[in-house]
Write a structure and sequence with these properties.
Helix content is about 10%, strand content about 10%. By secondary structure, it is mostly loops.
Length: about 230
Amino acid sequence: MSKARDLANIISGSGTLNANVIPDLAASKITSGTIASARLSLGDSDIPNLATSKITSGTFADARISASSVNAHVDLTSLSASNLTSGTVPSARLSLAESDVPNLSAAKITSGTMDGSRISGGTFGSVNGSSLTSLPSSAPTSSQVGTATAGITADSIGSYIQGKHQGSAAGSNFIMRRNSTIAGQYIEAVNGTGSSSDFNTFGNCSGTWRCMGAGQQTGGQNAETRTTMWLRIS
């Protein structure tokens, strides 16, 4: 066989060696260069155990790290608060005692409304009137008081009535002293003689009334002695 034929059997038309003429080689024969990854077929058994010191770059995916591994090797029971650099700790994770809450300047309260039950009467005793809002700029005038008084209707709070006491839980004998109070159901509107026969007003008064004069009811007294002036207070 000629040398030309021998070369044709070894080298293909594209100039590469025919695979069937390349002998099996020991790995020790490969002393330089890099084998392409596509030429390697590795199984788990081909990869040796590695010390963690061999892992010098990259980041493990969360799915590759079990929660038990983290808990076993990271002490989460003694973290410094300085390690919390973002996010918000849920209220349920906080356990605050009164001693944990610092004294606050009133200037720190910039929104919301303080519950009235949290403010003592002594606090209001030291309030400067100039700090109160939505108040009249001055005391009511006589005209304003007169207008408000004129708007009071019969039998409303603040109204007066000329009336007589007409029986009560106190019985038939009853002394009406100044500033004493009774229920309106026991007051009957009367005229100057103490008569109410034409008005039929007994039991029509509501609320509580204060005696502004004096009177007395006894079994033998007439209507005039039971008639006085009353002021509705509630």
